Amino acid sequence: DRLKAGLKKTKDILRTDLRDLFKAGAILDDDVLEEFEGRLIRTDMGVAASDRIVTKLREDHGGRTVDVDAVWDTVRGELRELLKGDGSTNWDLENPLSPLAKADSGPTVILVAGVNGVGKTTSIAKISNLLQKNGNKVVLAAGDTFRAAAVEQLTMWSERLGCDIVRKDSGADPASVAYEGATKAVELNADYLIVDTAGRLQTQKNLMDELDKIRRVLQKVIPEAPHESLLVLDATTGQNGLSQAKSFSAAVECTGLVLAKLDGTARGGVTVAIRQEMGIPVKYIGVGEGIDDLEIFDPDGFVDALFS
Ligand code: GDP
């Protein structure tokens, strides 16, 4: 499927490159383990996660003749545990909306942030599509007013998806767009309002102030808003994306991550690093440029896709 195809490059590092390492009959000694750790790190899994996997391998299989299946079982098991973490990602996989919070009544407000180019606009379109396909009415608020192109692109998606959009001229106050979006969502009895926000991160204080203001005005219309604050990350940037996420989440509260462009990158291991080093769950992954190329993040599915 799409995830398997998308993770091919990451998979190739782990499996194809490693077949020579874990040959039946070879001894799993420190040299082999060190080389393996290096390759795990090459997938941008991070030192901590890689170290944990290798430590477990050493414990269970170190100094012995390699039993290929048993070794891979250990790697898979550790990866599953690393990805599942505290269990907060045990969504109902049958319900693609289960990772998202839902308002008790009235519109659910989803705030979306992310640095320019990470795939934020596309991810908003994909999430809107998912919501609509499941019978929800969606209103978009084009709050990334700093970039005219972002507003245009979101407008194009809204036309394609057939959902309402609130937009203003470029340079307008993002908070006023958010406010009008909330008003419109209530007026139209919408199920979801998705608020795009500026993708720049000049200083944490700027970003914090801007998002605080957006929250405040949203709450004038919808007191519990935002119900969900998603940060979009670009998987192809690997460990850089991770440090971006750290500074972002230090500045503003996030409730979930969307990991875009997981397809075609060899840095898919960053998913593990993100899970390990951030207190925020990856809720969705982007596996292509198409509108349907969004999947719920499923740790088991992810590990299976890497080792299929
Ligand atoms: P924004 O600047 O963050 O809003 O980024 P865009 O949504 O405009 O996306 C930037 C580029 O990345 C576009 O060419 C998208 O088609 C592409 N893109 C977004 N998400 C994905 C994804 O999951 N997979 C792939 N392969 N491309 C993606």
Automatic annotation (TrEMBL):
<dbReference type="InterPro" id="IPR013822">
    <property type="entry name" value="Signal_recog_particl_SRP54_hlx"/>
</dbReference>
<keyword id="KW-0378">Hydrolase</keyword>
<keyword id="KW-0342">GTP-binding</keyword>
<dbReference type="Pfam" id="PF02881">
    <property type="entry name" value="SRP54_N"/>
</dbReference>
<dbReference type="GO" id="GO:0005047">
    <property type="term" value="F:signal recognition particle binding"/>
</dbReference>
<comment type="similarity">
    <text>Belongs to the GTP-binding SRP family. FtsY subfamily.</text>
</comment>
<dbReference type="InterPro" id="IPR003593">
    <property type="entry name" value="AAA+_ATPase"/>
</dbReference>
<keyword id="KW-0963">Cytoplasm</keyword>
<keyword id="KW-0547">Nucleotide-binding</keyword>
<dbReference type="GO" id="GO:0003924">
    <property type="term" value="F:GTPase activity"/>
</dbReference>
<dbReference type="GO" id="GO:0005525">
    <property type="term" value="F:GTP binding"/>
</dbReference>
<dbReference type="Pfam" id="PF00448">
    <property type="entry name" value="SRP54"/>
</dbReference>
<feature type="domain" description="SRP54-type proteins GTP-binding">
    <location>
        <begin position="281"/>
        <end position="294"/>
    </location>
</feature>
<feature type="binding site">
    <location>
        <begin position="114"/>
        <end position="121"/>
    </location>
    <ligand>
        <name>GTP</name>
    </ligand>
</feature>
<dbReference type="GO" id="GO:0006614">
    <property type="term" value="P:SRP-dependent cotranslational protein targeting to membrane"/>
</dbReference>
<feature type="binding site">
    <location>
        <begin position="196"/>
        <end position="200"/>
    </location>
    <ligand>
        <name>GTP</name>
    </ligand>
</feature>
<protein>
    <recommendedName>
        <fullName>Signal recognition particle receptor FtsY</fullName>
        <ecNumber>3.6.5.4</ecNumber>
    </recommendedName>
</protein>
<keyword id="KW-0472">Membrane</keyword>
<dbReference type="InterPro" id="IPR042101">
    <property type="entry name" value="SRP54_N_sf"/>
</dbReference>
<dbReference type="InterPro" id="IPR004390">
    <property type="entry name" value="SR_rcpt_FtsY"/>
</dbReference>
<comment type="subunit">
    <text>Part of the signal recognition particle protein translocation system, which is composed of SRP and FtsY.</text>
</comment>
<dbReference type="GO" id="GO:0005886">
    <property type="term" value="C:plasma membrane"/>
</dbReference>
<comment type="function">
    <text>Involved in targeting and insertion of nascent membrane proteins into the cytoplasmic membrane. Acts as a receptor for the complex formed by the signal recognition particle (SRP) and the ribosome-nascent chain (RNC).</text>
</comment>
<keyword id="KW-1003">Cell membrane</keyword>
<dbReference type="InterPro" id="IPR000897">
    <property type="entry name" value="SRP54_GTPase_dom"/>
</dbReference>
<dbReference type="InterPro" id="IPR027417">
    <property type="entry name" value="P-loop_NTPase"/>
</dbReference>
<keyword id="KW-0675">Receptor</keyword>
<dbReference type="InterPro" id="IPR036225">
    <property type="entry name" value="SRP/SRP_N"/>
</dbReference>
<dbReference type="GO" id="GO:0005737">
    <property type="term" value="C:cytoplasm"/>
</dbReference>
